[in-house]
Amino acid sequence: MTTTRFQSKADPSAAPEGAPKVHVVTFGCQMNKYDSELAEGRFRARGYATTEAMDDADVVLFNTCSVREHAEERTYSWLGEIKRAKEARPELVIGVMGCMAQRVEEEVFRRAGHVDLVVGTREFQRLPELVEEVRSRRADPERFGARDRKILATDGEVMVEVDRSKEVYTGGRHAYLAVMRGCDLSCTYCIVPTTRGKVQSRPIESLVKEARWLVEQGVQVLTLLGQTVNSYGEDFPAPQGDAPRYRGRQGRPSLADLLYELQEIEGLERLRLITLHPAYVTRPFAEAIRDCDKVDRFLPLPAQAGSDPVLKAMKRGYTLDLYRERIALLREVVPDIELGSDWIVGFPGEEEADFQGSLDFLEEVGFVVNYIFKYDPRPTTRAAERMEDSITVAVKKERNRRLLDCSARVALRRMSAWVGREVEVFLEDASEKHPGTLLGRTRHGLPISLRGDEALLGTSVRARVGDATAYGLSGERLE
């Protein structure tokens, strides 16, 4: 789970002269980026334009992350910076949305009194109406005092409705598509179920409609999002009577069914998935990856730890042997699949032998991509409330470094195995640092750079891999 900051794209659509402007700053994961795009689309449908310049905006929104304490403190730092702008322009509307807003609610107003709106992870879809309500209350000071002009909207049970027909997509060749929201698992370290709520999968028909709309807007690569994306459909009711039967448990729609449907969309080149859970790796899912050539042969399948006692304390719901069974199934059906993992070091009670297990398991499985995090207690989680954070910061840092070193060594080995081989590459971007160099990904999700003309962007080419690092490949395009 990253804490990248994304900025709004300029609105290319013809907004009316003098239209109000909105600026969105996004912290956190890809789901937050997607939610920010939905929010921007709703503002555009109400006559707003988006702006990349915060100083030009009439509305400034911060889409926040709660996965780590540092991510929340960064938001408060930004809110402190924008306070001067609010003092100079009292009419400016400032809102905080997303996971931190959902978690702390009124605390945002106490720590940053110049904030007007606090909107959670499901109610952001009402932001244009809520902004207008803020302005309406400001215009009636006799009825609404300073405190009553602020709005808190954090109902975590509402369904997010997605209708993007009035939007103009500005994200280029790549787009995110949230197939579900929330998480019903109970990992002891994770705050996501608190901030994102219970699982709500979207109907296949709705997802295919949005995917087709994105492709019509020029999108060629779709990344399907979910807290545990391969559990898609588990919350659907079992079919009754003559209802269609799907590949999911008890005949429900599953991610496999969705992949087969998206495979048929003309103009869509690649499908990617973030993020999976070992418990939901099934044979039908593996077969869908095998059968659908648009699906990358790369899966982020977080192990989190290489120790059964630590996995049990994390309440991950699997043992190392069960994880091995799942990847054996994947590699049986899709022999050339590459895997990535997330890891937590310094979890409460992690002994040196437990950590050594993570080093050994990373080597054993051969993860080509690894995201490594030092354990950070999050409020309301079971680990924070019931387990002592007994591992010192120094030990966490030292284990983090050792696992990073192991990751780089294993990744280089996996990447080097591709040297000399021919691969299919979808070219996505031009390098900003190296003119004449194009950036793409192989069918196995591996980043690769090639020399070539920018006219090739958005196409697939054959290439021979010539060199490898721990972080990617380089090669030559074959005529």
Overall structural domain count: 4
Q: What's the average pLDDT?
A: 94
Overall helicity: 25-40%
* CATH topology descriptor of the largest domain: Rossmann fold
Contiguous runs where pLDDT drops below 50 for at least 5 residues: none
User: Which strand-content bin applies to the residues?
Assistant: 15-25%
CATH class of the largest domain: Alpha Beta
Distance between the termini: 39 Å
Task: Count the E strands.
Answer: 20
How would you classify the helix and strand content by structural class? alpha/beta
Which architecture of the largest domain per CATH? 3-Layer(aba) Sandwich
Q: How would you sum up the major sheet?
A: 7 strands, mixed
Gyration radius (Cα, Å) is 23 Å
Number of helices: 14
User: CATH-wise, what's the superfamily of the largest domain?
Assistant: Methylthiotransferase, N-terminal domain
Oligomerization state of this entry?
Answer: single chain
Shape summary: globular
Secondary structure elements and their pairing?
Elements: E1 4-7, E2 21-28, H1 30-45, E3 49-50, E4 59-64, H2 69-88, E5 93-98, H3 99-104, H4 107-111, E6 117-119, H5 127-138, E7 151-153, E8 174-178, E9 180-181, H6 192-196, E10 200-201, H7 204-216, E11 221-225, H8 255-263, E12 270-274, H9 283-291, E13 298-300, H10 308-314, H11 320-333, E14 338-345, H12 352-365, E15 369-374, H13 382-386, H14 393-416, E16 422-430, E17 437-442, E18 447-451, E19 460-469, E20 472-477
Parallel strand pairs: 2-3, 2-4, 4-5, 5-6, 6-7, 8-11, 11-12, 13-14, 14-15, 18-20
Antiparallel strand pairs: 1-2, 9-10, 16-17, 16-19, 17-18, 19-20
